[in-house]
Design goal:
The structure is a single chain. The protein is α/β, with parallel strands linked by helices and 446 residues long. The chain has two domains: 71-174 and 318-411, 3-Layer(aba) Sandwich (Rossmann fold), CATH 3.40.50; 177-307, Rossmann fold, CATH 3.40.50. The protein is built from eleven helices and 14 strands. It has helices at residues 3-47, 92-102, 118-131, 144-154, 177-187, 220-230, 258-270, 286-294, 320-337, 359-375, 380-387; strands at 71-76, 108-113, 135-138, 159-161, 171-172, 194-198, 211-214, 251-255, 277-279, 304-307, 391-392, 403-404, 416-421, 438-441. Strands 2-1-3-4-5 form a five-stranded parallel beta sheet, sandwiched between helices. A four-stranded parallel beta sheet has the order 7-6-8-9, with helices on one face. The termini are far apart.
Length: 446
């Protein structure tokens, strides 16, 4: 081999080697780029909060022909009286007022406290009638609600109940009792011997219950211990075996106000009760999560109740219901950012209660304002007549299901099984003191 041939061969080998090195470097760069892209993707998926669908339903709500000076009454229960668990949820009325204002419709909300009693309910309504309201939202629940509705009927003022069953003198936007019972029955699944723990709410009408444990003033820890024994979660020791209750229950139904339900569920968790626990719809109140947390319970437990799609999780839906809830939540954020915005009673900044503001009270206020516009009057009699002819949906600004006030059971949607999640969807402002759960339809229901 000549020197020239050797040189040519060396040069060719050098060029080949250079190309191989470039190829290896290029592959390495691609690998690194792929790894970086994967890491960024994972970070994005794990760090980003849930996003609502675009709010193509506008945040402002415009209602034509609403007279200047229109007033809507809101009855709440302050303190710890019957129905007080809905105080935080009732703040959705403030959101409705702001959405109307953004759309050029100014209404005044007049709030009264019923104290959770028949006498207080009647007094609160009479005060609102004296104040000249066109209609009243009773944002409470319990037996005293009937007294409020009766007092309003005497004055000819229409009443909408977002959290209670309708009476002869009112309209309800809550699910029908029979529908709630059917959903709770499905939530119990294959349970054959459910135990009702009655914390003051009574037995849901028509629900198949095998045993009843009436709480009375019994401490929740003692109740939980009894439930644990009756469901077989714990075995009595030799000294107490003779007095221990028999194992006779394979599921638990809890009935009562939200705060007592939350406290009992915390105690049931501590007692290691593992059978299915089904709650009455009171548990959809923000007070349930707050009581559960303050009782040392875990918000990440399994909670089931009955209701309809009125909570934040609906905003993740791709349909019109999702867009409507997204608009409502957008308004919640707007009001919470306003340093001048107050709660219904004017003693707290709205931002402090924003996490509990509920679409049900929001929709009840919007319904009455739409009816005032349809009547072109604030006369209670004219508003009552118009209400009985009114149907509303998402195009009217509602955040929840459609309402038809041609029936006093204005909500026609059937209740479904709801499951709770403690995971924040990132759709509400932070910094509120309320410990909230998000309720969503149980996709495992058949």
């Amino acid at each position: 081999m000549t020197d020239d041939t050797q040189a040519t061969g060396d040069g060719l080998e050098a060029r080949r080697g250079g190309r191989r090195r470039l190829l290896f470097v290029g592959i390495a760069v691609l690998v690194v780029a792929a790894v970086v892209a994967a890491v960024l993707t994972v970070r994005s998926l794990t760090a980003a909060p849930a996003e609502a669908v675009p709010a193509t339903v506008p945040v402002p709500v415009t209602v034509a022909h609403v007279p200047d000076g229109t007033k809507i009454g809101v009855v709440v229960t302050l303190g710890d009286g019957e129905g007080s668990e809905w105080n935080q949820a009732a703040q959705g009325a403030v959101v409705a007022q702001r959405r109307l204002a953004l759309g050029g419709t100014d209404v005044q909300l007049v709030t009264r406290n019923d104290g959770g009693s028949d006498d207080g309910a009647g007094k609160a309504v009479r005060q609102l009638v004296h104040d000249g309201v066109a209609g009243i939202v009773v944002a409470s629940s319990g037996k005293h609600v009937a007294a409020a509705a009766a007092a309003a009927a005497d004055a000819g003022v229409p009443v909408v109940l977002p959290y209670a069953d309708h009476t002869d003198d009112s309209w309800s936007t809550a699910p029908a009792p029979a529908s709630v019972t059917a959903a709770m029955q499905r939530a119990l699944g294959s349970a054959e011997s459910p135990l009702l723990v009655d914390l003051g709410g009574g037995a849901p009408s028509g629900l198949r219950i095998a045993h009843v444990l009436t709480a009375g003033s019994t401490d929740v820890s003692a109740l939980a211990k009894t439930v644990a024994q009756r469901t077989g979660a714990v075995q009595p020791d030799a000294d107490t075996a003779a007095d221990a209750p028999a194992v006779d229950s394979d599921a638990v139904v809890v009935s009562g106000d939200a705060a007592r339900q939350g406290a009992l569920v915390a105690a049931l968790q501590a007692a290691d009760v593992t059978v299915p626990v089904v709650l009455t719809p009171d548990a959809t109140s923000p007070a349930f999560g707050a009581a559960l947390s303050s009782g040392g319970g875990s918000l990440s437990g399994t909670f089931r109740t009955a209701g309809v799609a009125t909570d934040d999780a609906t905003a993740l839906d791709s349909g019109s219901a999702g867009r409507a809830m997204s608009a409502f939540l957008g308004a919640v954020r707007i009001v919470a950012k306003d340093p001048e915005a107050k709660n219904l009673t004017g003693d707290q900044a709205f931002s402090a209660v924003a996490s509990g503001a509920d679409s049900r009270s929001h929709d009840a206020v919007l319904a009455l304002v739409h009816v005032v516009g349809a009547a072109r009057s604030t006369s209670p009699e004219a508003v009552t007549d118009a209400l009985a002819k009114t149907s509303l949906g998402v195009d009217d600004g509602l955040a929840g299901p459609a309402l038809d006030f041609g029936d006093q059971q204005a909500l026609g949607s059937d209740a479904t099984v709801l499951t709770a999640s403690a995971q924040s969807l990132g759709l509400r402002p932070t910094g509120s003191s309320t410990t909230s759960l998000v309720w969503f339809a149980d996709t495992t229901e058949h």
